[in-house]
Design goal:
This protein is α/β, with parallel strands linked by helices. It is about 40% helix and about 15% strand. The protein contains 12 helices and 13 strands. Helix 1 packs parallel to helix 2, helix 1 (about 10-25) crosses helix 8 (about 240-250) and helix 5 (about 95-115) runs parallel beside helix 6 (about 150-170). The chain binds uridine-5'-diphosphate-4-deoxy-4-fluoro-alpha-D-galactose (UFG). Uridine-5'-diphosphate-4-deoxy-4-fluoro-alpha-D-galactose binds near residues 86, 201, 205 and 217. Uridine-5'-diphosphate-4-deoxy-4-fluoro-alpha-D-galactose (UFG) binds next to helix 7 and strand 8.
Length: about 350
């Protein structure tokens, strides 16, 4: 069976990706330091797939530990590198921590790939690299904007580090997937998002409000230049997103791929306003949400959604789930999470 090393494999997107690799017949090897995830995620993966993946508790910034793991798994055909810090606001408060974790982690992974002859990389990038694009939907040809946060800057710099490394090491190939807004959970409700403390992102804030942990959702601004005044994002179901990684690994190693480095937008191709997401949640779940219109949140862009033509054509991948299916899956997961909270919730601060 073909081995794939998945860093951050017990995290939100990582765990869903592990499931899709197992479903596609691969053998995922997880590396995670459990700083923002829980070991019990492995139980969820096992319940869904019937397989318990190999797991290493290790930090990607620990190059000695990475050397050992890559030595033991030098027959892997690719690395899918998720492990990174991801909270935009926190990155403004702790920029050095973000640069250290996200860049040192990537550098170590690339070094170990070179050393142990693991030649394929799929990297978690973000639509944040585009900032507020002038032309929508945003294609991969859109130039990078100045990063809004240290987190966003780590994604830009990471793509550059990968490209420079590839130029010096012809055997390596890499794909960057630029995610739009991942939401939802596996339809089984055995795995999903485990936000650390008060959520910053829209979907977990909605589900936590609906279940009664938060009193009221604040909609950050309704005076934007959009049909209902609230910002537009491209909300992609996390299972669809996970499948894009399987498609990327297949493409990376196929004869069709004549590029050493390539990059793809991973979204639905459709923008939704905040109010549309709320309406979808209420429609799909039958639960009424308590929300109010509040002021704009600093740093928010007005609108962005993906042109996914390149991923559709080249990777043969397309988002399939509807927004209603996705908001319902987030709710089913939230309900299960509260029943299983002692086992699953990492920590609150
Ligand atoms: N929002 C609210 N209330 C909330 C939370 C969010 O109204 O309590 C709104 C935001 O203003 C925004 C939309 O919901 O309009 C989506 O906000 P999220 O925080 O869920 O997502 P962002 O688009 O701000 O950020 C996401 C990722 C980042 C990534 C960024 C790239 O979380 O990692 O997209 O644009 F950098």
């Amino acid at each position: 069976m073909k081995k794939i090393i998945i860093t951050g494999g017990t995290g939100y997107i990582g765990s869903h990706t592990v499931v899709e690799f197992i479903n596609a017949g691969y053998e995922p090897i997880i590396i995670d330091n459990l700083s923002n995830s829980n070991i019990n995620v492995l139980d969820g993966i096992e319940k869904i797939t019937g397989k318990r993946p190999t797991f290493y508790k290790a930090d990607v910034t620990d190059n000695f530990a990475m050397d050992k793991i890559f030595y033991e798994n030098d027959d892997a055909i690719a690395v899918v590198h998720f492990a990174a810090s991801k909270a935009v606001g926190e990155s403004v408060q702790k920029p050095l921590m973000y640069y250290r974790n996200n860049l040192n982690g990537l550098i170590n992974i690339l070094e170990q790939m070179e050393k142990h002859g693991v030649n394929g990389l799929v990297f978690s990038s973000s639509c944040t690299v585009y900032g507020q694009p002038e032309i929508l939907p945003v294609t991969e040809n859109t130039p990078f904007a100045k990063a809004e946060s240290p987190y966003g800057n780590t994604k830009k710099i990471s793509e550059e580090i990968i490209q420079d490394t590839l130029k010096a090491t012809p055997a390596l190939k890499a794909i960057a997937l630029r995610y739009f807004n991942p939401i939802g959970a596996h339809p089984s409700a055995y795995i999903g998002e485990l936000p650390n403390g008060t959520p910053n992102n829209l979907m977990p804030y909605i589900t936590q409000t609906a279940i009664g942990i938060r009193e009221c959702l604040s909609v950050f601004g309704n005076d934007y230049n959009t049909p209902d005044g609230t910002p537009i994002r491209d909300y992609i179901n996390v299972v669809d997103l996970a499948k894009a990684h399987v498609a990327a690994v297949k493409y990376l190693n196929s004869h069709k791929n004549d590029k050493q480095f390539d990059f793809f937008n991973i979204g639905t191709g459709k923008g939704s306003t905040v109010l549309e997401v709320i309406n979808s949640f209420e429609r799909s779940t039958g639960v009424k949400l308590n929300y109010k219109i509040a002021g704009r949140r600093a740093g928010d862009i007005e609108k962005v959604w993906a042109d996914t033509t390149k991923a559709n054509k080249v990777l043969g991948w397309k988002a399939e789930k509807t927004l209603d299916e996705t908001t319902l899956s987030a709710w089913e997961w939230e309900k299960r999470l509260r029943v299983k909270s002692e086992e699953l919730i990492v920590k609150s601060h």
